[in-house]
Amino acid sequence: MKHILVIDDDPVFRLMLETFLTKNNFLVTSVGTSSDALRTIKKTLFSLCLVDLRLPDINGLELLKEIKNLTPDLPLILMTSFVDVRTAVKAIKSGAYEYITKPVNTDELIIAIQSALKSDNKVSKETPSTEDTSFYHYGRSKSSLETLKAIELVAPTNLSVLINGESGTGKEFAARLIHARSKRNNKPFVAIDCGVLSAELGPSELFGHVKGAFTGAGFDKAGHFELADGGSIFLDEIGNLPMEVQVMLLRVIQERQIRRVGAGKSQEIDVRIIAATNDNLKDSVAKGLFREDLYHRLNEFSVSVPSLRERKEDIEGFILKFMKDANKELGKSIEGFSEEAMDIMVKYSWPGNLRELKNVVKKTVLMTDSTGQSVVSPEIIPYELRVSPGISSENTFGGYDLKAASLKQEREYILSVLEKVKYNKSSAARILNIDRKTLYNKLKLFNIEI
Ligand SMILES: Nc1ncnc2c1ncn2[C@@H]1O[C@H](COP(=O)(O)OP(=O)(O)OP(=O)(O)O)[C@@H](O)[C@H]1O
Question: Rounded to whole angstroms, how far apart are CA atoms 338 and 237?
Answer without folding.
Answer: 38
